[in-house]
Amino acid sequence: MSALALLFLIAGLGLIGWLTARVRAVSFRRDSSARFSSLPSHHGTYVAMWTVLPAALFLAVWSSVSPALVTDAVLETPAAAQLPANKFERASVLSEARNLAAGRSFGTFNPLSQTLAPAYASAQKRYDWISSAAALLLAFATGAWAFTRVRPAFRARTKIERVVMLLLLGASLIAILTTLGIVASLVFESARFFRMVPIGDFLFGTHWSPQVIPANDPGSALGAVPLFWGTFFIGAVIAMIVAIPFGLMSAIYLTQYAAPRVRAWMKPILEVLAGVPTVVYGYFAALTVAPAVRDLAVSLGVTWASSESALAAGLVMGVMIIPFVSSMADDSIAAVPSSMRDGSLAMGATSSETIRRVLLPAALPGVVGGILLAVSRAIGETMIVVMAASGVATMTLNPFASATTVTKQIVDLLTGEAEFDSPKTLAAFALGLTLFVVTLLLNIVALTVVKRYREAYE
Amino acid sequence: MSSTPPDMGSPEKTPTDWRGDAMQRRIRRRYRSERRFKLIGLAAVMMSAGFLVFLLATMLSNGIGGFSRTEIKLPIDFPKAGLTLDASRLAGPGADMALAGAGIQGATDGAAIAAFGKDGDQLISDGAWLTVRSAVKADPALLRGRATIAVPASDAIDIAAKGEGSNEDKAQVAKLKAAGVLTTGFNLSFLQGADSTDPTMVGIWGALKGSIFTMIVTLVLAFPVGVFAALYLEEYAPRNRWTDLIEVSINNLAAVPSIIFGLLGLAVFLNTFHLPRSAAIVGGLTLALMTMPVIVIAGRNAIKGVPPSIRDAALGIGASPVQVVFHHVLPLALPGILTGTIIGMARALGETAPLLMIGMRAFIASPPERLSDPATVLPVQIFLWSDQVNRGFVEKTSAAIIVLLVFLLAMNGVAIYLRNKFETRW
Q1: How far does A78 lie from chain B, in Å, by closest CA?
Q2: How far apart (Å, rounded) are the C-alpha atoms in residues B294 and B302?
């Protein structure tokens, strides 16, 4: 029986349970005038739940156990005696046979798998029947038990609501699980990396050339300082030189000067800048901005102009960040009490003097927090640098020279052909861990600053 | 401002002379700086909007050519083309088999050489025979005589016809135009095909289908989980260390760089659970983890917006807490939740980096049929085409970007519409 048919059958049983329980509960109502805690449909749902959930749980557990059971059954057949003793060869023959039996295979490399495939197919079929029968029986049994509990005084609704609450709690726990998953996978893979490469070499080494990693001293080619510098230079310096003035001045103009109609139109238009996919920015940077920057550099007489310059990537990244800075600045300026602004205006200061000497200093912590958040977003940005920045790690202050970033290197390291256990691919996880920690710290600092500042005016 | 404050008590201080020259000059200076400041602000807004306009205009002008293609009217003399094809089989179910072995590719190239000289087969696309094949399949009667079929021109001719490329190619184009065989048509195959090595034959449908599959998985996973988590945190969660932990994780997850989610997908879904590489289901799972916090945060704000009086009223007439939430709070908060969900989904649709991490950068020449088939998505397809050296891919990349932006615009439009239509001010 196919899995889909089985699920339909169980769902059908659940539906039958729902209907019969409901009919029964309705009949109670007709016969008495007592007050009930639950509606007939609550009783129905209670029975349907008891029909479907245990069987579904059973199938979920079974699907994780059954491959091992099937393999055990196959190993007991006489044909399995010819299996090679080597663990890896054995596993590869078995998986080939399994694919063959499931009809997923186009060809075989090992003749033995041909002989094992029928055994697999029959064992699989046998266990499938057992599990289907058991699941249906379970569904029927638990459903019937729940049906016997349908009585006028039975509080079906509270039982259902308990399950609903569990469901809601489980959903919110997924956020913790995801965080744990991120931390665990990054830490686990990075630990393997740091077993091969000393952590000091990685964090403080100044030479990065993962193309050629000497086997006896992998740390000498995996010093990440140039990447940290490139990330900082592109994301926190060049991008911010663009984003801060434009974002801040846009926010000031739109909140303090612009007519409501202008504001209603311009604010969404600026927000579109944040909604454009980063791959589009990356293509724009590579196709239009990078050649223009190189031509500019050549006309300025820079001899080392690269067509994958830090400036091109940083400029485009800055444009992408503008709406982010703008909306953070908007929020913090709006949070300054209007009494301060009114006081300054009443003393005869012009609007710009009020903004520069009263509003901005008062909003500064919020603005700084917003800028830190923007930096954290910029250094985690990937596609723009993947498409427009260079892969060569350099430490330079020249914006026309090439520079690379952590995110760009993660992509480059993981899309090569190397096997997974090499220091080259594991280095990507160490870089990812560094990126995660840095963005996390930036976020925590920024949010604390913003929060303190909010409290100061409440 | 730097002058000492007037001291009213002492008789030797005179009040500020506002009409005096010095003061008037100073006021003028202050007003000038006021105007300058305002102008700088206006310039910042205008330039930011200008960046956007420039970006969109560049993509539009580069990409509009990707939707049209140059075609050459190729005369083919089918009886003399040497096809090993039995016309009677074309009617039945074996038509594809019969056509596959018929040697149409050679016949098409031969016809091009016969029509346009020695290098004639260089003028038509490598995939031109596919057009001939479908024409024959649609109308087997063609096989009986001479027919003129419009086939896609080669990459070089296509570029030259659109005003770029080498002078030789332009000369060829002029010659073909003079002969009256060159036409420009809407590039339907761009909307129907999948990836290809030949820019004249590439299409967007494969990537679009992959995107749709991925988005379905993302929505099915992220929406219920996000809404349930938001309901729990906003309505039921007791204030304790555990709920604080959940809140901190959600807020942090929303700020984690997307590439980190890609690393998670690679380490967990591919290397631990051994799910298929490059499949839509893995992409959907990864993006769901990324989108879920966005939905939770938007959902919590929407739920917060429902006034307490509604809850109190429902509780007052005897509803249980679960009934209050599912019968009253959730329906009222739903427009806000949906708006947040669409915005989160739009972000997921444009996301590239995490999908590169889980192997979605392979050359996929056919649209995926199932969730576990190798697939590619629109932004990744854009990234892959942008890497191609072939000149013909530039306009295809920009055209794909236009398609992606149209989808994002539509999604955001729906979100804004929902917000305006259902937003309730309490």
Answers
A1: 30
A2: 12
Q: Which of A182, A248, A270 sits opposite B260 (nearest CB)?
A: A182
Q: How many Å apart are CA A290 and CA A296, to the nearest integer?
A: 10
CATH 1.10.3720.10 in chain A: give the residue spans. Answer: 218-456
pLDDT confidence of residue A231: 93
**Helix, strand and coil percent figures for chain B, each rounded to 5:** 65, 5, 25
Q: Percent of chain B at pLDDT above 90?
A: 38
Q: Looking at residues B301-329, what average pLDDT do you find?
A: 92
Q: What are phi and psi of B183, to 5 degrees?
A: -130, 160
Q: Which of B52, B66, B386, B55 is nearest to A289 (CA)?
A: B55
Architecture of domain A218-456: Orthogonal Bundle (1.10)
B146-152 β-sheet, strand order: B146-152, B68-77, B182-186
What residue spans define the domains of chain B?
Answer: 69-185, 205-422
What CATH superfamily classification does B205-422 receive? MetI-like (1.10.3720.10)
Q: Angle A360-380/A423-456 helices, nearest 10 degrees? A: 160
Q: Name the strand (E) or helix (H) holding B219.
A: helix B205-231
* Dihedrals phi, psi of B93, to nearest 5 degrees: -70, -15
Q: How close B363 gets to chain A, by Cα (Å)?
A: 13
What confidence tier does B97 reach under pLDDT thresholds 50, 70, 90? low
> Chain B interface, mutation test: which of A174, A242, A373, most B Cβ atoms within 10 Å?
A174
Gap from B55 CA to chain A (nearest CA, Å): 7
Q: Determine contact, residues B376/B385, Cβ cutoff 8 Å.
A: no
Structure token pair of residue B316: 């007052």
ipTM of the complex in this document: 0.87
Question: Confidence band (pLDDT; 50, 70, 90) for B5?
Answer: low
B45 and A266 in contact by Cβ < 8 A?
yes
Q: Would you say B320 and B294 are in contact if contact means Cβ atoms under 8 Å apart?
A: no
B2 pLDDT band, cuts 50/70/90, is: very low
Rounded to an integer, what distance in angstroms lies between the CA atom of residue A414 and that of residue A192?
16
- Model pLDDT, residue A153: 78
HEC-encoded secondary structure of chain A: CCHHHHHHHHHHHHHHHHHHHHHHHHHHHHHCCCCCCCCHHHHHHHHHHHHHHHHHHHHHHHHHHHHHHHHHHHHCCHHHHHCCCCHHHHHHHHHHHHHHHHCCCCCCCCHHHHHHHHHHHHHHHHHHHHHHHHHHHHHHHHHHHHHHCCCCCCCHHHHHHHHHHHHHHHHHHHHHHHHHHHHHHHHHHHHHHHHHCCHHHHHHCCCECCCCCCCCCHHHHECCHHHHHHHHHHHHHHHHHHHHHHHHHHHHHHHHHCCHHHHHHHHHHHHHHHHCCHHHHHHHHHHHHHHHHHHHHHHCCCCCCCCCEHHHHHHHHHHHHHHHHHHHHHHHHHHCCHHHHHHHHHCCCCHHHHHHHHHHHHHHHHHHHHHHHHHHHHHHCCHHHHHHCCCCCCCCCCCCCECCCHHHHHHHHHCCCCCCCCHHHHHHHHHHHHHHHHHHHHHHHHHHHHHHHHHHCC
Residue A125 predicted with pLDDT over 70: yes
Q: Which residues of A, range 179-238, sit inside 8 Å of B by Cβ?
A: 179, 181-182, 185-186, 188-189
Nearest to B401 among A254, A280, A407 (CB): A280
Tell me which amino acid residue A215 is.
A
Dist. CA B99–CA B125, nearest whole Å: 19
Residue A406, judged by CB atoms within 10 A of its CB (0-12, 13-18, 19+), counts as buried
| Residue B329's pLDDT band (cuts 50, 70, 90) | very high
Q: How far apart are CA A333 and CA A250, in angstroms?
A: 12
What's the whole-number average pLDDT of chain A?
86
